[in-house]
Amino acid sequence: MENTINADLKAALERLAVEGVVPGEMIFTRQVISLGAKVAYTVRAVEDSGIIILSTTTATAIQLPPAADCPGQEVTLINIAADAAASCAFVPDGTETIKGSAVGATDAACVQSSGAASATWANPDTTNLNGDRSTIVSDGVDNWYIKESVGVWASV
Amino acid sequence: MEATINVDQKIALEAAATYGRIPGEIKFRRQVKAMGAAVALTLRAIEDSGIIVHALTDDSVITLPAVASCKGMQVTVVNVGADGAAKVSISPGADDYIKGSVVGKTGAAAATVIASGAVKAKDWINTKVSANNGDFTTLVSDGVVSWYITEGVGEWASQA
């Protein structure tokens, strides 16, 4: 069975299918969610790729999907609470890991994650600064790697 | 002039149109704006999202759109002047803030994290005397009143 289509559209569609190139200019914005009083959010595999989560309330937990479900997925968590006011953390799925390092507190050296199975990656309320952040990327297997991070974070 | 597509292509096209999903991997390029000799650039809400601005000249000022008009908009400003040659300022709207931190001094034994003052309507400035070629800041709008720094390197400071 065949259908008819404009030749230009057909060429564009074929290019998209073969090269993954979309003709024309694309404008993108990042998906940003403010949790407000909420203390939990479950990140959706693939659908939430590139998301920026703004956390306000202490003990906020961001549950990650299995890394295998979302290779290349990037998630950014920003603590927007006042200084020393609220903690927040990434929680890996099951025994998965979060690995890598963050640039620590003012004038401090880098802080490295333990990379231990099931350990969360947390920004404690005793030392958090407004705007502390961490961006992690799924390796598509069973790890999340820290791509960029600022503030006092620790494996818990 | 017309052409034919097969059934699978038709289904993929209909899915893209209906759900906004495009099969396959999308590759994209960021919009790069070289200011050259210009010292002022006003960014457009949404339309300039994802832009990378290359500021070359001393006292360059990049003016941001109102945060509330561009939730999720991402802007990167790079100082492409020579070391110590150009002051570059990112200027938020009258009701808006720039918040967060960047990684500071090059060559310091320990990294220095520099936090913004998080004061309304204050510029975020790459100081001339300590600027290094390639210093940058990336901001994302929260759609309310704040631009949050998501990445950044160099000696930046909030306007006094």
The count of strands of chain A amounts to 14
Structural class of chain A: mainly beta
Which regions of chain A have little confidence, pLDDT < 50, spanning 5+ residues? Answer: none
Alpha-beta classification of chain B = mainly beta
Q: What is the domain total for the residues of chain A?
A: 1
In terms of quaternary structure, the protein is heterodimer
> What is the element string of chain A, with H for helices and E for strands?
EHEEEEEEEEEEEEE
Order of helices and strands of chain B: EHEEEEEEEEEEEEE
What helical percentage do the residues of chain A reach? Answer: under 10%
Our estimate of the beta-strand percent of chain B is 35-45%
Query: Counting H and I runs of at least 4 residues, what is the number of helices of chain A?
Result: 1
Q: What level of helicity do the residues of chain B show?
A: under 10%
Main sheet properties of chain B:
6 strands, mixed
C-alpha termini separation of chain B:
63 Å
How many beta-strand runs of chain B?
A: 14
* CATH topology grouping of chain A: Jelly Rolls
The average pLDDT value of chain A, as a whole number, equals: 88
Low-confidence stretches of chain B: none
Q: Which geometry of chain A do the CA atoms define?
A: elongated
Note the gap between the termini of chain A: 58 Å
Q: Radius of gyration of chain B, Cα only, in angstroms?
A: 19 Å
